[in-house]
Write a structure and sequence with these properties.
Blueprint: E1 7-11, H1 23-31, E2 34-37, H2 40-49, E3 56-58, H3 64-76, E4 81-84, H4 97-105, E5 109-113, H5 118-126, E6 133-138, H6 143-154, E7 159-164, H7 169-179, E8 184-189, E9 197-202, H8 203-208, E10 219-223, H9 232-235, H10 238-253, H11 258-269
Parallel strand pairs: 1-4, 1-5, 2-3, 2-4, 6-7
Antiparallel strand pairs: 7-10, 8-9, 8-10
Helix pairs in contact: 3-4, 6-7, 10-11
């Protein structure tokens, strides 16, 4: 494969399964003079798997500004390079945007080798509307800032896609359950990896059926868009009934009796529309 001299190639890498790498990506990585990588240790394992031995140097969030200048210098000297991140595409919730901007500003050529994307994979698996969506990357870590950002995002009518770190997945689902209790969610974990799973339902139901041991792994959350309040179906009960059904079913799967699951659903979601509140069970002390 003939590469353009003095060009920077943005190469998407697998988000999990190494078999997802494209033939073109491998050809480019074999043909460039050097590769700038988010984590050279991670990329070195990928290259070794495919028998590629191109020179590597780091270009991550903490040195990207300096590396951008170096990459521009290398390209100006006629060398051809590739930029990769640990998983997915450079610059998309990962380092790379500063490098690309600097290369463009210097009048150098940038080419893209597209490939695996957790956003698109999760949308495909979600079962939600994919005709339009907003990708918001990672939410703020602090609870107040996270919920403030979510309030803005959840007001949008299109499907919402978020990334979340393993140690914050539960907190984010709790915020979604609090702010949008009836919205459908697809919580995707470890996409394309050995332990890939997708949990679908309202956020509270997903949380109720999520063992602590399964919180680990990278998460992509797909959230149903805000309903059109002027549409008749937005004011009808079936949407609420479906969310309630999913909540109860998820609890029953964990061993909770149906009666207890219905009582917990009423506590979390309130009474069914048009129906009386169930009398709470009398507890003894």
């Amino acid at each position: 494969m003939e590469l353009e001299r003095g060009a920077l190639y943005l190469v998407a890498t697998p988000i999990g399964n190494l078999g997802d790498v494209s033939a073109r990506a491998l050809d480019v990585l074999k043909g460039v003079d050097w590769i700038a990588a988010e984590d050279t240790r991670h990329t070195r394992r990928l290259l070794a798997h495919f028998g590629i031995s191109a020179p590597l140097f780091s270009a991550h969030a903490h040195n990207e500004r300096a590396r951008a200048e170096e990459i521009v210098t290398r390209l100006a000297a006629g060398a051809t390079g590739a930029l990769v991140v640990d998983a997915g595409s450079p610059g998309v919730s990962d380092p790379g945007a500063r490098v690309v901007a600097a290369v463009i500003a210097a009048g150098r050529t940038v080419r893209v080798v597209p490939g695996p994307s957790a956003v698109i994979a999760a949308l495909s698996l979600s079962g939600l509307d994919t005709s339009a969506f907003t990708f918001a990357g990672f939410l703020p870590a602090r609870t107040g800032a996270r919920e403030s950002r979510l309030v803005t995002l959840l007001a949008r009518p299109e499907t919402l896609v978020l990334y979340e770190a393993p140690h914050r997945a539960r907190a984010t689902l709790e915020s979604i359950a609090k702010l949008a209790p009836l919205r459908r969610v697809a919580a995707c974990r470890e996409l394309t990896k050995l332990h890939e799973e997708v949990r679908r339902g309202v956020a509270s139901a997903i949380l109720a059926a999520l063992p602590e041991a399964q919180e680990r792994g990278e998460w992509t959350l797909v959230i149903e868009g805000a309903p059109d309040e002027t549409a008749p179906e937005a004011r009808a009960a079936p949407g609420e009934d479906e969310a309630r059904r999913q909540f109860i079913a998820a609890l029953v799967e964990t061993g909770v009796t149906e009666s207890d699951a219905r009582e917990r659903a009423e506590f979390v979601l309130g009474p069914p529309r048009g129906g009386p509140r169930r009398a709470g069970r009398r507890r003894t002390t």
